[in-house]
Design goal:
By secondary structure, the chain is of the alpha+beta class. The chain has one domain. Helices cover 30% and strands 14% of the residues. The protein has 2 helices and 3 strands; from the N terminus they run βββαα. It has a 3-stranded antiparallel β-sheet. A hairpin with a 3-residue loop joins strand 1 and strand 2. It binds zinc ion.
């Protein structure tokens, strides 16, 4: 398999707060994508963070759930 750069335009959010590259089907992390999230602006980075956080919460992260409302 040729080396995939995991271009940001190929990255899609998948279950579990993960991100997948549609070119190579790999699960990628923020440091694997090109260009770097840091270079792409705060908005995209926030989307990435929110998706991760949501997935972590849904998959039962070891955080104490508080009953709020
Ligand atoms: Zn890829």
């Amino acid at each position: 398999m040729p080396t995939c750069v995991h271009h940001i335009s190929w990255i899609v959010p998948v279950e579990g707060g993960l991100h997948q590259c549609i070119q190579c089907q790999q699960i990628v992390s923020r440091k694997d994508v090109y260009p770097k999230l840091e270079d792409l602006g705060e908005e995209l980075r926030r989307c990435w963070d929110e998706h991760e956080a949501r997935g972590a919460a849904a998959s039962g992260a070891p955080t104490q759930a508080k009953s709020g409302g």
